[in-house]
Amino acid sequence: MLDGLINSLSFNAYVVVVILLSIAGIWAIISWSYDNLRSLVLIVKAVLAPYFLPQEHQTLAEKFGSWAVITGSTDGIGKQYARELASRGINVVLISRTKKKLVEVANEIEQEFHVKTKWIAADFSQGRDIYPRIEEELRGIPVGILELTDTFT
Ligand SMILES: NC(=O)c1ccc[n+]([C@@H]2O[C@H](COP(=O)([O-])OP(=O)(O)OC[C@H]3O[C@@H](n4cnc5c(N)ncnc54)[C@H](OP(=O)(O)O)[C@@H]3O)[C@@H](O)[C@H]2O)c1
Fold first, then answer.
1. Using CA positions, which residue lies closest to atom 41 of ligand 1?
2. Any atom of ligand 1 within 6 Å of the Cβ of 72
3. Yes or no: is domain 60-148 CATH 3.40.50.720?
């Protein structure tokens, strides 16, 4: 009878161990699959979503707000950024050194794209002293996009 009890107990322990190992194994498989297949699932989802899910189109202004600040914005890359953002209905704050160029580019953008502009003449190579004035000039403007075109060292 004692032998039967011992056999029954060890059988129950065996069953418990098997169940625990099974749970651990299933958990390990799920974790491994999640880690390894997650990126693939996300990529497939991102590729297929536009074809199957209704897209909620947001304009740049709806997404980031209606104002952008662009440094180095009177020539080259910065100017093209300013024009591109303005063409999408974003008001632009232009920051560069030369007042004459700033006025010209601001007028050009306002006439062409019918957005608001503001310009700030500042030389970023002059150190931190220029920042309080820029901060003051930007006060009250809800800036959602900041494009820093240069390091200006
Ligand atoms: N163009 C390219 O193919 C290219 C490629 C790779 C990297 N980059 C880099 O991208 C940056 C811009 O290039 P870009 O070709 O657009 O130059 P860019 O045509 O010479 O224009 C520079 C702009 O920055 C302003 N600026 C220059 N120094 C300034 C300063 N100290 N403080 C404030 N504003 C200043 C200039 O106006 P003011 O003179 O009135 O200040 C101008 O609006 C540079 O760092 C360049 O090295 C350019």
1. 97
2. yes
3. yes
133-143 residues labelled b (16+ CB within 10 A) or e (exposed): ebeebbeebee
Q: What whole-number distance in Å separates Cα of residue 63 and Cα of residue 117?
A: 19
Which atom of ligand 1 lies closest to the CA of 74?
43
Residues 6+ apart with CB under 8 A from 104: 74
Tens of pLDDT, residue by residue over 93-104, are 999 999 999 999
Mean pLDDT of the chain: 91
Strand, coil or helix: what is 55? coil
Closest CA to 148 of 68, 65, 66: 68
CA distance 103 to 117: 10
- Between the CA of 17 and the centroid of ligand 1 the distance, in Å, is 69
